[in-house]
Amino acid sequence: MSSRDHKAPYEIVGELARYIVQARDAAVPSAAKDPALQCIFDLIVASIVGFSDPGPTSLRQAAVELYAPGHATIWFADQTRSAIGAAWANSSAAAAKDLDDGNRFAAGHPGAAIIPAALATAQEVGATLDQTLAAIVLGYEVAVTVGSARTTYGSSGTWTPFGVVAAVAALRGTPLGAIEHALAIVGESAPNQSFAGGPSPRIPHPEGASVKEGIPWGVVTGMTAVVMAEAGHTGPRNILDSRRHYVFPEDLRLGTALHICQTYFKPYACCRHIHAPLAALHQVMAEHGVSGAEIDAIHVETHPPALRISNKADPVNLVDVQYSIPFDLALSALHGPEMLTPVTEASLSLPGVRELARKVTLEASDAFAESYPNEILGRVTLTCGDRVLTSAPTPPEGEPLMSWQELDTKFRRATRLALQMDRQQAILGAIASLKAGEMRPLLSQLSTPL
Fold first, then answer.
1. In which band, very low, low, confident or very high, does the pLDDT at 335 lie, cut at 50, 70 and 90?
2. CA-CA distance, 320 to 243, in Å (whole number)?
């Protein structure tokens, strides 16, 4: 029996709430400030790439109809709305193309939820850059702590709302008791994602759709929960003490774990489960000088959760492409890795891709299963005529974090189809100002249409 079993009711919710109150008035930990700035930059890249996707386009229209006018920016649309409406729309753009950041211990994407909520709330309350960064850091801390404690897999929309509550409550100065209830409310009210986040085998696999992991609706749930709790609404504050659903360590290490420093950034716009096999493919092709046209078959060894995604060799739409190891490896092998940053409709009909994707086989590796999630590895074996070429066990790129130069490269590559060079330079200039402590140039760029 854990010593937690002898502690007061709603111990975990109480501990999280006390951390939020204490951390919101403290300086941003020096080790976390640069990662927080990088996470903002990386999410803006993902949002530009996802802006014109049908999902975000429809949510921007819905936000105008469903949410009140306000001063929070709907990014790149020359529109404003209430903080919740703007964050909802911006979160959808950030998550649309699967280019947003993630955390492998929580098995999902904190940034696409926490950063839009924090920036919109900061505009609403007039927060400083330092206050905004502090809110983002503690949002990651709370979200990843809860996501990592789940006893079963949950899509990002099921656990990121805890981080949204943390960030928004910090910026709004929400009282301790209301924070406790807001955390409890999202624990019961966040999207359950019972189909997309359900256990394997999922028969049938979910159709590729804009709703994906439920991150935007998780943003709405989290931000709404704060307002509800401030007004007196209550939730079951002992929800996180349920050993059936959560197992927390004895020491949550809140404020010292600095989960934001373990964020991964994606070089490719597809599910993170695909990135280790992609890195392995690129390694073995480069080592042996293999062209895609020479490849007759690809065998992939990976960790078991990677077999949980749909992995369709014949994707119907771009969401299917985001969750397909066979298709993405074939696309990269035949037409170059740049085709994955970003993935476009043209990829669905490029010559040879579907044919090679049907020759990709997947295997769960016991060794890789044992090391996951502390280590993520992939191994690829290529059959090229009478040659059989095998990569070393290979980790994905972009973890933890990237250098500023690597993020600059990612930005230029990912936005090359959406932005002219002068607009790219203007946004990079705004990021430079952000690093120097000035937020207004970035807000100006976010309010300027693409």
1. very high
2. 34
The sign of the CA dihedral 144, 150, 154, 158 is negative
Q: Is the pLDDT of residue 1 over 50?
A: no
- pLDDT tens-digit readout, 228-257: 999 999 999 999 999 999 999 999 999 999
pLDDT at site 6: 46
Does the pTM exceed 0.85? yes
CA separation for the pair 373, 103 (Å, rounded): 10
Residues of 376-392 as b/e, b for ≥16 C-beta within 10 angstroms?
bbbbbbbebeeeebebe
Residue whose pair of structure tokens reads 């409550």 in the numeric block? 169
Instruction: Please tell me the predicted confidence (pLDDT) of residue 372.
Output: 95
Burial call 406-435: b when 16+ CB within 10 Å, e when fewer: ebbebbeebbeebbeeeebebbeebbebbe
Q: Long-range contacts for 129-134 (Cβ within 8 Å, ≥24 apart)?
A: 129/434, 129/437, 129/438, 129/439, 130/27, 130/28, 131/24, 131/170, 131/171, 132/171, 132/439, 133/28, 133/33, 133/36, 133/37, 134/23, 134/24, 134/26, 134/27, 134/28, 134/170
